[in-house]
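May I ask for a single protein's sequence together with how it folds?
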Amino acid sequence: MYGSNYSSVSEFVFLGLSTSRPVQHFLLAFSTVFYVIIVLGNFLVVLTVTFDPHLHSPMYFLLANLSFIDLCFSTLTVPKMISDLYSGHKTISFQGCVTQIFILHTLGGSEMVLLTAMALDRYVAICQPLHYLTIMSPRVCLLLVCGAWAIGLIHSVVQLAFVIHLPFCGPSEIDSFYCDLPRFIKLACIDSYKMEFMVIAISGFISMGNFFLLIISYVFILVTVWKCSSGGLCKALSTLSAHITVVVLFFGPCIFVYMWPFPTVPVDKFLAILDFLVTPILNLAIYTLRNRDMKMAMRRLSSQLLSWRKVS
């Protein structure tokens, strides 16, 4: 029943976000500008953390990994969307669609766990400051990052292992701008109810689990700051409110897509824009541009690059 002989679909057609040409032109300009900012900004963060010795600490190590994942996450879908909007040729091969789903879930699962690791880092820094460098040692940070990638990879492999051999005999239209696993399963020539339930259960568990861990860690941080200093509570609220905004915007679309009981509602593809274009820029603004040490390091790096250019 799941053999490849039953699959006659060699490519899928994206219906995109809108059929209106003015809306498509706006989306083309919007996505192009945002993607350029995402690439330049996140690449600069990775470069700065790598080459500036002042930033060789657990927090910035995790931040550089977050920027790398954000860069990959956007690059996986946005250039294809821009190309489709520009050319009007909105197709993707069957193998390309499966590959996109696999990498998407690997990156998504990894980022969820990494955001939780970053919350853990802030919790230890605020609640256990004297033991911070001992608890968040380089070995622990490396294990956290490797664990995030491993969980993301396992999450993706488990999902695709059940759907990779599904038979597809038509239709081949995906009502989105990227290959979304729930919509991919719905195109199979079988009763997909059990498969959809499995996907919802796995993705819902990792999404909701990490989301609640993040919220709980933020609550503990606020309580600790409040007990130590009422004056520091306002500053902590200001910082954590921005972090919580990013978390909600990132996890919100994931939870909506995989927990909503009516997955055919088309609003999910518009919510995906938050994950691919808006959240990576917010991560830059909140974790980087509001950070004094990071801004000083970027200035030092810029000065070094300019001096090297003058010498050469």
